[in-house]
Design a protein that fits this description.
Elements lengths: L2 E3 L5 E2 L6 E2 L3 E3 L8 H13 L4 E3 L14 H12 L2 H4 L2 E6 L11 H15 L4 E6 L8 H13 L3 E7 L3 H10 L4 E5 L8 H4 L2 H8 L2 E4 L14 H17 L3 H10 L6 E4 L4 H5 L8 E3 H12 L5
Parallel strand pairs: 4-5, 4-11, 5-6, 6-7, 7-8, 8-9, 9-10, 10-11
Antiparallel strand pairs: 1-12, 2-3
Length: 302
């Protein structure tokens, strides 16, 4: 039976002309680190072959304060070690406005981008994403705003996060520059992008798929239900064969999809970051891959 082998080589970020690593590192919990620890984590990710770093202006917000804290910490690190910026593809997001909750209007997004650049102490980001869809802003207005960000030289590529397939298509129809990425939740415990048309659309439109919460919010590492235990067992069966851990097997399972999905790893542990390369040691048979999917579905495939 043929096996599917993953390559650690860089891949295109959609039609942007930017190449990125097949695994990204996310900064959702980065704000709690100090500058020294944060730099250690970034360098560990770079040493593991990661080039795509994903943050957002909302990261660090705890419901009362901390908005922008992850970006501010990253800016402090860049101030101490500016060469780190040149080694990464830097992505951030905007549009979540507690307690409103969302604003993708032109005035707000332009201000949000400038604020992100100031906090990170950079003159541009490589990828700017609308964090969540704002129902009250017409996609044509969002499109014009994103285009102006690119033409101003502040953004190299544009993407969306948590959009539906229809919302993505509507926005793309108004854009004169290519939409480069879609960032949905996706893991063996959250399969919606496989069935709601999102990943199929990404392949159709040549969008990079950046998967957040690839470990199911930690439930793959610490399963608590019968379904989660079944998924863990299916992953362990493959992981044990190749001498890697369950998390590496999970990332590898996600990346095996022909859409070349990029998992965003959120661990804030340097040793676990160093283990990311283990994901490329696995060779998936179709049977093994589908065994995980069947466990995740909780029922046989039709």
């Amino acid at each position: 039976m043929s096996e599917i082998t993953l390559s650690p080589d860089s891949r295109p970020l959609g039609k942007s002309g930017i190449t990125v690593s097949p695994i990204a590192w996310g900064m959702w919990r980065f704000a709690g680190a100090g500058a020294a620890q944060g730099r250690t984590l970034i360098e560990a990710a770079l040493d593991a072959g990661v080039t795509l770093f994903d943050t957002a202006d909302i990261y660090g917000f705890d419901g009362a304060g901390g908005f922008g804290d992850a970006e501010t910490l990253l800016g402090d690190i860049f101030a101490e070690a500016p060469a780190l910026r040149d080694r990464m593809v830097l992505a951030t997001k905007g549009g979540i406005t507690p307690p409103v909750p969302y604003d993708s209007g032109r005035d707000y997004l332009m201000q949000a981008l400038d604020a992100s650049l100031r906090r990170m102490r950079v003159d541009h980001v490589d990828l700017y994403q609308i964090h969540r869809p704002d129902i009250l802003t017409h996609p044509q207005e969002v499109a014009r705003t994103l285009e102006d960000m690119v033409s101003a030289g502040k953004v190299r590529a544009i993407g969306v996060s948590n959009y539906t397939a229809d919302q993505t298509r509507a926005l793309a129809s108004f854009l004169s520059v290519p939409l480069s990425s879609q960032q949905p939740e996706f893991s063996p415990l959250f399969l919606d992008p496989l069935t709601n048309g999102l990943i199929d659309q990404a392949m159709e439109l040549n969008l990079a798929v950046l998967a957040w919460s690839p470990l199911g919010g930690g439930r793959i590492a610490q399963p608590g239900t019968a379904r989660e235990e079944a998924v863990a067992a299916a992953l362990d069966a493959v992981a044990g064969r190749f001498g890697v851990g369950r998390t590496a097997a999970t990332y590898s399972w996600i990346m095996t999809h022909p859409a070349r999905v990029i998992p965003i790893v959120g661990t804030q542990n340097a040793a676990r970051i160093a283990e990311l390369a283990d994901a490329f040691r696995i060779r998936w048979s179709r049977q093994d891959w589908y065994d995980v999917l069947v466990a995740a579905r909780g029922e046989r495939l039709p």
